[in-house]
Amino acid sequence: MSANESSEAGCRSEVRPSNDTCIQKELSVTASVISMTVGIFSNGLALFILIKSYNRIRIRSRASFLLFASSLVVTDLLGHVINGSLVLFVYSSHKRWETFDPYHIVCSIFGVCMVFFGLSPLFLGSAMAVERCIGVTRPIFHSTVLAPHHMKRLLGLTWLLAVVVALLPVLLWRPYKVQSSRSFCFFHLEEPKDWLDVFLPLLFSLLGLLALLVSIVCNTLTSCTLLQARLRRKLHRRGTSYHVEMICQLLAIMLVSCVCWGPLLIYVIIVSTRAKDESTSFNLLMVVRMATWNQILDPWVYILLRRAVMKKIFMLFYCCWGSKSRSLHRWQCSMLRSSVETSNSGGDPSQYHCPGRLPLSDTAIKSIT
Length: 369
Fold this sequence. Notes:
The protein is mostly helical. Helix content is 78%, strand content 1%. The longest helix has 38 residues, at 195-232.
């Protein structure tokens, strides 16, 4: 990706743009368009599924979880639409920030959106983990104290915290800065002027890591509680299936967030606390692009990790495994009969029968539903 206007001008003046700068620019635009398109489609499909489930469900704890999950998908969808549109606008303007943004208004909006749509999924995932942990470990408290309006207030506070953190650089007169790649705006990471330039990116990273840590702790406690209840058979089967489905989704969200956002959050801390090098711009761009995949993978957690889908996968796996088991069963029976015929010539081979394979019971199917 080009880092200055001269290289961009040279790219535009070429009759056949075959140099590395032009190729990288085209690849960057293509990657942004693909990421935006896939993200909008994935989040739109997941939102449709969640809204359909939310209107059908009658369990309060399940409804609270679906409320947070739908809010997470809506946030990811808006992030793809707004941030993707800003990226395409910057590329269509040939990244001439001095021309189309002389007062740094677009850069400030871009930076606020980057931080808000980055922290919101992490905060929402953490809030979902806390809500499920309370619902499983303290079900009476959850059903009597945590009313639906409390969940909505918690959702609003989560978004408000992300907005405050995103607006802090603007309110403290430490505006967001165009990065060296000239394709997006972010915190002032290179050559900070004072402690505020170091504090703001550190606050962003530490809050993100704290949200991931809370998710890990709460999901671990919830999983252990569900496992103990499953072993002791204290929970009703149907109620347990709802909890297992939600925990599988939470664990998948936590894993995706750690893989996608962990490198960016750690990298910002490292860059903010040590001297910079020449590869800072390239590395920052790579980890930012990696973080955007969180908004693409999150909706597929709700699309794939549903009871209906997992049931079909289980049935498909069982059918494939069952066909091999039947072939092995017939081979073992034939070998047993031939062995009986040769070793016990005086006996009746029909009395040596091979027991049939047990059919798939309803309990095996219902255990995943």
